[in-house]
Amino acid sequence: MQIVACIKQVPDTTQVQIDPVTNTLVREGIPFIVNPYDTHALEEALRLKDRFGCRVAAISMGPPNAEATLRKALALGVDEAILLSDRVFGGADTLATSNVLAAAIRKLHEQDEVGIVLCGKQTIDGDTAQVGPGIATRLGYTQLTLVDRIEHIDLEKRVIRVRRKLEGRHEIVEAPLPVLLTVVRELNRPRYPTVPRRLESADAEVKTWNNQVMQLPEPTIGLKGSPTWVSRIFSPERDKGEIIGDGVHDPEGTANLLIDKLLSKDLLAL
Amino acid sequence: MASNPSLFAPMLIAAGIFFVWSCYRRFSLVTLGRPEDRFQRLDVRIREMLLYAFGQKRVVAKPFGINHFVIFWSFMVLLLANGEFLVKGVVPTLSLALLPAPLYHGLLLAFDVVSILTLFAILLAFARRIFFPPAYMSTDYVKARSVEGFLILAFIALLMLASLGLHGAEIALGSEPAAAFMPVSSLFATMLSNSPLAQSLVPIASLCWWLHALVLLAFICFLPHSKHMHILTAIPNCFFASLEKPNTQPREEFVKGGEFGVDRVDSFTWKDLFDSFSCTECGRCQNACPATTTGKSLNPRQVIHAIKTNLLANGPLLQKGGAPVIPLIGEEGEGSSTEETIWACTTCGACMEACPVLIEHMPKIVKMRRHLVEMESRFPEELLNLFENMEQRSNPWGIAPSERTKWCSTMEIKPFEKGVTEYLFYIGCAGTFDSRSKQVTVALATILDAAGVSWGILGKEEKCCGDSVRRLGNEFVFDKMAKENVQLFREKGITKVIVQCPHCFSTLKNDYRQYGLELEVIHHGELLDQLLASGRLKLNRQVSDLGGVLFHDSCYLGRHNDVYEAPRHAIHSATGQAPLEMERSRSNSFCCGAGGGRMWMEEHSGERINLNRVDEALRSSPDTICTACPYCMTMFEDGLKDRQAGQTRVRDIAEVVAEGLRPV
Fold this sequence. Notes:
The structure holds two protein chains of two kinds.
Chain A lengths: L1 E5 L2 E3 L5 E3 L4 E3 L5 E3 L1 H17 L2 E7 L5 H10 L3 E5 L9 H18 L2 E7 L10 H9 L2 E13 L4 E8 L2 E8 L2 E5 L11 H8 L4 E3 L1 H4 L36 H14 L6
Parallel strand pairs in A: 1-6, 1-8, 6-7, 7-13, 8-12, 9-12
Antiparallel strand pairs in A: 2-5, 3-4, 9-10, 10-11
Chain B lengths: L4 H26 L11 H13 L10 H26 L10 H31 L8 H5 L1 H28 L9 H11 L7 H22 L7 H10 L30 H9 L5 H5 L1 H4 L6 H20 L19 H5 L6 H5 L6 H15 L6 H12 L29 E4 L2 H5 L1 H16 L4 E2 L10 H5 L3 H18 L3 E4 L2 H10 L8 E4 H11 L14 E3 L13 H11 L33 H10 L5 E4 L2 H13 L6 E4 H7 L5
Parallel strand pairs in B: 1-2, 1-3, 3-4, 5-6, 6-7
């Protein structure tokens, strides 16, 4: 049995700016990171590997430079890293993306049975939280979202019991394998790669599957397979704020001024 | 004469063989260590050896060290006397009496006087151990090793007494023609003659001779197995000491299949292992260590001792190609250091500054950290974010690099440009992002402009120097950061750098040299002093509203880089008064607790280091505590809050000077 972790390369959002003309993210010079939720998915896959000895494959759809993300996964200990990259995959919405990822998982399943697929609950650039459930739907797997703890796994009986983190409560759910889990940060603490693994991963193979390999009909992928499109993207205007008083030379007066301001805006209750 | 060559000779040969065999066993273990070149610049090495080993420079830095100085030099003189004793014991005709008479008589006088001096020194040492032991002698670890200390003192005392007794008896018997040159022994002779023992002088001489012989042989056999081995290793250890201050750690080559860091004793270098045999167990390192002082499990002396114990236990197995049986890292007990111990070090360097035989403790601890981080990814959990932030965003907090210029949003700042600006002002992460330290940055920038210094910044291109990750043993990430910075500095043609953080200072100055980048790095403490002394910086008024200003030495400025006086001069120039001093200052300064990456870690056990230091500062009743390091500033401000000492403020030295720029 193998486990698949779906990961995505995302721009480091603390540094993202929006181009007002094209309505797109300015990606130039912005460093990329592994989507933070996905690092927890990857970690859980590796923990299951440590526990049950099953294989772990990491897959990612993205441009060629997303290879760096998969290399990090290799440094952390995945057995196989596959980049799903082709121009025709570009411009995909969550539906088209889940089509490609689901197809890749099906292809992996042909080599070795896939029991569990792990995804982050959402990405920090798109924030839709749709791709994980989309993959589960396409594959016909049970989807367990927002998992913050795996309570029990029995690979022989093919069942998994997890805890879901919902607003103000937890829910414990059991489901038969195969399943797709989307995970939250509380699930685990990602490991840190050892140096020998990093060095090995530097020239380990990241496989690239383009559409010649995948053979997916073009209307289901990329821009053509995407019923949704972004009409506008913008940052909401924010008050500039003001500097009040002179804290260095009149701390007391400034503190009073601040309290008055906060009181007048109902931000402070007496 | 009482000697019996036919009896003594075989004993001497047996002891000699045992001694040589013991020494060989131990020194051969040292060769298990990895290679390291400690043979460059022999002239400097010889000078250091003369100064620290023969001159006992560090030993006499503490008052009681003078006692050791007396014992050491007596030992050197008496080496000749004891050598003669052993030779004469086998071949009675061979003696120093064969030398020209004036020389021989001079030597006799020296031996005689030195013997009684030694006896006094030994009695003092006894008295100190019993009646007024230093505080650090009360720890369990030291108590357990105390028997050995007493035994060694007893050996030496017996040797002196036996020698004086022997010569006294011989003089009393009239069989010593050179008695006139032996005033102390003559005194013993008079005492013997006037006592009931006068009737048995011959057996007394014989008894003293054999006592002297047997104790000497026992000592020779015991020596390589005790801490007294340092009389063999301390002198070469000073010779092989690091020529530069051990304020940095060696580089690692990252090649596939490599082992990184140290978790086996044979992964240390031979010098690391030799250090462990050189430890005199004097306890000065533990006395100076902020971790030991505040009740952490780290005791630098014990770390060195554990390496020695580990080597003695595992070495013979390793020599036969076997595997070690005692882990170097992990377990409590002899021969191991726990992970908690390894992470407790602030890399302040106080241990190395205190060590009389120049043992380099800190690099060994960092080497063990490297193993934990690089090979096993095992480290206190709070470091995970730090490591990722450093690698991802090149600052400890993970703040976006695009925000690196926010501190100067209200100022007109030039970018560094070769040929246009003279200095790069390397702001450092704290000065860039920490709200309190940003005030220091602005103060310093204002001063630089007021003094007409030509300077520019890297702005968004500036990256963290990597100090914390290196001291924390994440050499892999440091290596990447250092290479990026070195390349950036080269591309920009940067040669002169102003820094306000001693950690940036030491890293740019010392660590980057390992990457072939020689920079002229100046800490603002030095620069302010220069600007004020040369008159380039003219203050509008004397700074008086800060009250009594106390200066705290940052470890990476003072101990690691010997900058002690410049910041004090600058304070003096600005305030018109020499700064107040703490009990522990300059090279003896006590760490704030934030060095070595401890800034980013929780302090779970013992007293908090910063509180220990804050309490010390408050004993001088300062109005202002002046720091020269952003970490020290944070630690002091936190500590003062804990102690509810709101009336005492913390100011960076730049802020103290900038006060003087305010209009009158």
